[in-house]
Amino acid sequence: MASEDVKASESAVEKIVNLAEEAKLARQEIRPTSHAVISICKSLVAGGVAGGVSRTAVAPLERLKILLQVQNSHSIKYNGTISGLKYIWRTEGFKGLFKGNGTNCARIVPNSAVKFFSYEQASKGILYLYQQQTGNEDAQLTPLLRLGAGACAGIIAMSATYPMDMVRGRITVQTEKSPYQYRGMVHALSTILREEGPRALYKGWLPSVIGVIPYVGLNFAVYESLKEWLVKTKPLGLVDDSTELGVVTRLACGAVAGTMGQTVAYPLDVVRRRMQMVGWKDAASIITGDGRSKASLEYSGMIDTFRKTVRYEGFSALYKGLVPNSVKVVPSIAIAFVTYEQVKDLLGVEIRISD
């Protein structure tokens, strides 16, 4: 009897030990490992650096684009890319070319970090569902699925940082002759909240959401699909035996992706900027130098903005600033993608977006 009791006790202890081991393994599976956390942080850092570097490189063109988007067609100050940059230089100096860039970087660094990381996570989730649906564990993302992952990433990143974009737009259109000056990002935020309310920080959000789907979606989809095609076909010796694309080739892929995305989404960007100016009592004088155009700044929503812009200024007004934006977007998107991958290599992150 004693021996049977001992065996029963040993069996009970063994079961408890086994249960403890199973619980430990379960907790390890649920909790992210320290390696995974570090990898996530490195990925976010890489995305943030990519955004900051790419936007600072094209800051003068970014400011000119916004000024062209919101200026009234009856009082032209900024006429074309080269002449517009010269006018800013002549009237505001070197600092004028980079006005709003600090706020832009404060927005774009977290935006870019969230966007790249969200794309990677969305890609993994969509790929898993696609493999489960098709029953093929070796299935890869199609261009359409990449478009969906990019759209998800764009919506998440844009929504998280939209108030910063709103403030950046207001600061960017200021000139030295503006009757009222936002002294900086914090002052602009507090002033808008006090005078216009919290909802003002999300003016233009809807066209932004609609526009970010083709813009960011096409950026990622075209970039990744073009890289995949080059690796498979190896045209003109652009890919070496290790199937690695060179920096110049990746820059070219990013340039093509950026051009396609911004051309499709640009009218929504113009509408967004104009909606962001609504409610700002000094917007008319900042844009035109007097109060004559204030009525044209009164928009009740996205459709009304489209309708009034086309009615009073013509369909071409939806593409105001497209040329400097094209000049800006091509290097900006290209630099962002390549910087992201290079920084991840430097930080030792094993998985890149192309993997």
What report would you give on this structure?
- Belongs to the mitochondrial carrier (TC 2.A.29) family.
- Helices cover 74% and strands 0% of the residues.
- With 355 residues, the protein is mainly alpha-helical.
- The chain has a single domain (9-341), classed as Alpha/alpha barrel (Mitochondrial carrier fold).
- α2 (34-57) crosses α5 and α6 packs across α7.
- The model is unreliable at 284-296 (pLDDT under 50).
The first-level CATH class is given as: Mainly Alpha
CATH architecture: Alpha/alpha barrel
Number of strands: 0
Q: Work out the radius of gyration.
A: 26 Å
Kindly report the name of the CATH homologous superfamily: Mitochondrial carrier domain
Keywords:
mainly alpha; single chain; Mitochondrial carrier fold; 355 residues; 74% helix
